[in-house]
Specification:
heterodimer; A: 769 residues; alpha/beta; FAD/NAD(P)-binding domain; 5-stranded parallel beta sheet; 11% strand; elongated; B: 70 residues; 1 helix; 4 strands; 33% strand
Chain lengths: 769, 70
């Protein structure tokens, strides 16, 4: 990810965009923040928030034409927020602590402001705050300009006097009752000038006379044809107090930049009224009607203001965060996360604290599905993982266990293709996937037999599709795995692949261009006998779609069609099909962050009290492991005791290996193929493992075969330690990058295991690993 | 007694190969090019060391993670 891509991604996330009210406000009053503060009864800080945008809050509160209301998301749900009433409440209830703007660094430059209406007052205020010397001219006796034309009911005269008096305290040189003749004005006396005279024919004529080509007033800087002379207010626009304040602020910025000799135009596109890209989901928001002040003259009581401000929806997007346990875990959102990831990838020497975060995403893609701008955070994560692997910054332990599992499935104990390469071709090729074989070894040959009856010329390929490599960012490994599959598939005559796992489908589609696939569910429907032997179920199940079937409507459809044919009653979860949630297995997140995956599973299984039915064995196994009765649709076809299967403890990692071995053996027997592997000597070592010890091994990612290798090595070499009191032995062996330790006791024909653990550190000697 | 209590009962462990009682000794442990010395029960004759579970699952795991993230 380079900086350009980072900025594109940051821009794509709209969570930081202003809400419609703020973006429509010419001075971008932070309405959301004010409403939060008012609803908490904090009028003091609400007023401070207001004053950050508006120097004369009481004038604006009483006269603003409230452009914020036009796009308020509350409008159709009880009426737009009555912002002007709330602003007035802040002035009345929070005024005693009003904001005293500090003056930043005194400057020598002298600025003249011609016209003491709201635009001129605002510009003078802002320039004085920035430290400039300001002379303010007005022909009237008082500041305020056209404000004096408003009725007392609209704007009491004492408010104009009170608010304009603030300028005297700012050290501004006020020259009232002084009419300026622009044609005779001493321009050279001032470093910059603002003309804010209101609608005045003499000013209009002067501007026309001094135009530069077609330009009378620059639309961004409001600079006139004469350099250093700016104008604003109702001289330019129809009268609007909030627009006059906005013009005063804009011209003050232009004058400041002019005097600082920096670009007048750079980075100013966000000033003034804007359209926002922020999306706020209003589904489920109940109408709450606006609270008008009981006493219209006095304005809101504190209670009324709090009630009205509490109606604010505090508009934000957060669509992805709402549906994702992972994204919500750290309390932020993609715009912030992509920056964190970029920073993490850029670290050269320090600790990369973002590694765990990067490796905790399940890559399910739900975020992209719900995002109003289609930002798929999973794609960001995949790219980050690839970069970490390429730059050798991926923690070794992050995916090692899953990759070794993949290696096992592609090794001699499981991998099998029949018809063998070069010995025959087939029209269809069953690719059941490594996890179905690991979870339900007995189903594979039954599926094979059913399919043979349907299609005749059927081959079978047992191995891993490569998904763990892709999830881990191991692109080379993924491609190598794909090359093997493609080569075998080509040698079989490019048969149509029958897939039982939607994750395999995702991987194989990418690896083999032109591959024709069909889901096992679609094939099973062709079997007319399907569903005739089992009676209908009485209970209703909820269908859980695996996340890798999110954009596979055929898979979703045919899985449901099989369920219907089986006579199983079902209904939909609220989050299903394209909105389905990951069970926690995707993306190898379970290795990096098992606690988070536990929360993901809990979230999904608690969405409905009914038992679930799914068509991915890992979804089923993870849900059952956390206590949710769940069935795979194949359980209804090939399982014996449905009730028992729904709560069956899933096989542990070691049993998954054993089951895959069993599948291969059974298929070799079924196909009359001679096995191409022999049992290793360590596999003959008989271990006594309690169920607690099996759970411990599972949690510590230690396989039974790891223990067997340790004991075989210890017994053959004599390298073990012996406890003379209890007769236990303890020994270690390092078959790969991990040292395994086993505490055991030798029995007559077996070994009882008391403890097992591992570490990656090397003890003594070699320091190269 | 389990291995986790072994440091407190060092004299109960003997080297299966040499028959020597284990003794506490400084041993270097290392990972990804970084190393540090720790006290481990070792055979005074063949120098093989016994890593107890609380060290493997505690300090060692912590250091492994720190070094992997570096």
């Amino acid at each position: 990810m380079d900086q350009r891509r980072l900025h594109e991604l940051e821009e794509q996330c709209i969570q930081d965009c202003d809400p419609p009210c703020t973006s429509r406000c010419p001075v971008h009053v932070d309405v959301r923040q004010m409403c939060k503060e008012i609803s908490a009864g904090d009028f003091k800080h609400a007023l401070i928030t207001f004053q950050k945008s508006v120097p004369f809050p009481e004038i604006i509160a009483r006269t603003c034409d409230q452009p914020c209301q036009a796009l308020c998301n509350r409008e159709p749900l009880g009426g737009a927020i009555r912002m002007a009433d709330l602003e007035l409440a802040c002035c009345q209830l929070g005024m005693e602590e009003s904001l005293l703007s500090p003056v930043t660094g005194r400057k020598n430059a002298l600025v003249s402001v011609i016209g003491g209406g709201l635009c001129g007052m605002t510009a003078a205020w802002e320039l004085a705050r920035k430290g400039y010397r300001v002379v303010l001219f007005d022909q009237a006796e008082q500041l305020g300009g056209q404000l004096w034309g408003l009725t007392d009911a609209q704007l009491p005269k004492e408010v104009i006097l009170r608010e304009s008096a603030k300028l005297k305290n700012k050290g501004i040189d006020l020259r009232l009752k002084t009419r300026v003749d622009l044609n005779a004005f001493d321009w050279a006396q001032y470093d910059a000038v603002l003309i804010a005279t209101g609608v005045d024919q003499e000013s209009v004529n002067w501007l026309e006379k001094n135009r530069q080509g077609n330009t009378v007033i620059d639309p961004v800087t409001f600079e006139s044809g004469m350099s250093g002379v700016f104008c604003g207010g109702s001289l330019l626009h129809p009268p609007s107090t909030i627009t006059s304040v906005a013009d005063g602020k804009r011209t003050a910025t232009s004058i400041d930049r002019y005097l600082q000799k920096v670009s007048l135009t750079a980075s100013r596109s966000s000033e003034g009224t804007q359209d926002t890209r922020l999306y706020t989901n209003l589904a489920g928001v109940l109408p709450v009607f606006a609270v008008p002040p009981a006493d219209a003259l006095q304005g809101y009581t504190m209670e009324e203001a709090i009630a009205e401000a509490s109606r604010c929806l505090v508009c934000e997007c957060m669509e992805c965060v709402k549906v994702c346990t992972y994204l919500s875990e750290l309390g932020a959102y993609p715009r912030k996360y992509v920056r964190d990831i970029y920073n993490n990838l850029s670290i050269i020497m320090r600790q990369r604290r973002g590694n765990k975060f990067i490796n905790s995403c399940t890559l399910c893609g739900l975020c992209g599905e719900v995002c109003p701008t289609d930002l798929n955070f999973a794609e960001v994560i995949v790219q980050a993982r690839k970069t970490m692997v390429e730059t050798k910054k991926m923690p070794i332990s992050a995916h090692d266990f899953a990759l070794r599992d993949m290696n096992f499935s592609n090794g001699p104990r499981f991998a099998l293709t029949y018809p063998a390469p070069g010995e025959g071709k087939c029209d269809y090729l069953l690719f059941p996937g490594c996890q179905l074989a690991a979870s339900n070894p007995e189903y594979i040959s039954l599926i094979y037999d059913d399919l043979v009856r349907l299609v005749g010329n059927l081959g079978i390929m047992l191995r891993c599709c490569g998904a763990p490599a892709q999830w881990s960012g191991e692109e080379t490994l993924f491609a190598e795995s794909g090359a093997v599959i493609r080569s075998v598939w080509e040698s079989l005559g490019k048969p149509k692949m029958i897939l039982a796992c939607s994750s395999c489908h995702q991987s194989l589609k990418q690896l083999i261009p032109g591959l024709e696939t069909v889901s096992l569910w679609e094939m099973l429907l062709k079997n007319e006998a399907l569903g005739t032997t089992r009676g209908g179920c009485t209970q209703e199940y909820k269908v859980h779609d695996p996340c890798t079937s999110r954009y596979e409507p055929d898979w979703q459809h045919y899985a449901r069609a099989v369920i219907e044919r089986l006579g199983v009653r079902y209904s939909e979860l609220p989050m299903s099909r394209t909105l389905t949630e990951c069970c926690g297995y995707g993306g190898v997140a379970w290795l990096a962050n098992p606690d988070l995956v536990h929360k993901m599973i809990q979230r999904r299984i608690n969405e409905d009290n009914a038992n679930y039915i799914t068509y991915c064995v890992m979804c089923r196994d993870l849900f059952v492991s956390e206590g949710k009765p769940t069935l795979h649709l194949l359980d209804f076809i090939y399982g014996r005791d449905i009730s028992a299967l729904a709560i069956r403890k899933p096989p542990d990692y070691s049993q998954r290996h054993e089951n895959r071995i069993r599948v291969k053996q059974r298929m070799e027997k079924r196909l009359l193929v001679k096995g191409d592997w022999k049992m290793e000597t360590y596999e003959k070592i008989n271990l006594q493992l309690s169920s607690e010890m099996r759970d411990l091994l599972e949690a510590r990612l230690i396989l039974v075969e790891d223990l067997q290798k340790v004991i075989e090595h210890a017994e053959a070499s004599g390298e073990f330690f012996f406890n003379k009191n209890n007769g236990h032995s303890i020994a270690s062996f390092r078959p790969n990058l991990i040292t395994y330790w086993v505490e055991y006791e030798k029995q007559e024909n077996s070994y009882t295991v008391f403890d097992a653990y591992s570490h990656r550190m090397v003890v003594g000697g070699d320091t190269s690993i | 007694m389990t291995a986790s209590e072994m440091n407190k009962n060092s004299t109960e462990w003997i080297c299966g190969k040499c028959g020597e009682p284990l003794r506490l000794n400084k041993v270097n442990v290392s990972y990804l090019g970084s190393g540090y010395p720790v006290d481990l029960l070792t055979c005074p004759k063949c120098n093989r060391a016994l890593v107890p579970p609380e060290m493997a699952l505690g300090k060692m795991l912590e250091v492994e993670r720190l070094l992997e993230d570096k």
